[in-house]
Amino acid sequence: MIKKTYTSLLLILPALLCGCLHTGGVSIKQAHLLKQEGFKLDHHNEWALGLPRRLLFNFDDAKPSKIDSENVKELAYKLKQYNLNKLKIIGHADDIGSESYNIDLSKQRADNIASIFYKNGFKKENIRTLGKGSSQPISFTKDHDSRVNNRRVTIVIVPNSF
């Protein structure tokens, strides 16, 4: 009887443990890479690039810095190695200027980051870009540093098709 119970536990335990591991729709190996690269599983169950590797932009500028461009190129290479080739790239802006202008600017930021992925082997149909303007700030204060942090692009891994 004890042997039967022990055998049953051995068969059930792996299934229970797999249910406890929450990886946001990617494999454990992929999740490990994403964590190494600064991605975090957010409350929407999406892997989003967070601090310290956030992509920030200068005021009224949609072009990434050379360092950020190189970092995105390196990230593209790593993501392709792990077959993480579907992305959502979301551009953001600070609260200076009209909302329609900021939506256009944030979309340009997302498109410019996406173009780096395209140049490094990602297919256009696997990347969706969005411009959110100033509608999703990470900091609500009106000082210079807060506005700098709001001028950003977020890269989100999409494990399943759109």
From TrEMBL:
<feature type="signal peptide">
    <location>
        <begin position="1"/>
        <end position="23"/>
    </location>
</feature>
<keyword id="KW-0732">Signal</keyword>
<keyword id="KW-0472">Membrane</keyword>
<protein>
    <submittedName>
        <fullName>OmpA family protein</fullName>
    </submittedName>
</protein>
<feature type="domain" description="OmpA-like">
    <location>
        <begin position="44"/>
        <end position="161"/>
    </location>
</feature>
<keyword id="KW-0998">Cell outer membrane</keyword>
<dbReference type="InterPro" id="IPR006664">
    <property type="entry name" value="OMP_bac"/>
</dbReference>
<dbReference type="InterPro" id="IPR050330">
    <property type="entry name" value="Bact_OuterMem_StrucFunc"/>
</dbReference>
<dbReference type="InterPro" id="IPR006665">
    <property type="entry name" value="OmpA-like"/>
</dbReference>
<dbReference type="Pfam" id="PF00691">
    <property type="entry name" value="OmpA"/>
</dbReference>
<dbReference type="InterPro" id="IPR036737">
    <property type="entry name" value="OmpA-like_sf"/>
</dbReference>
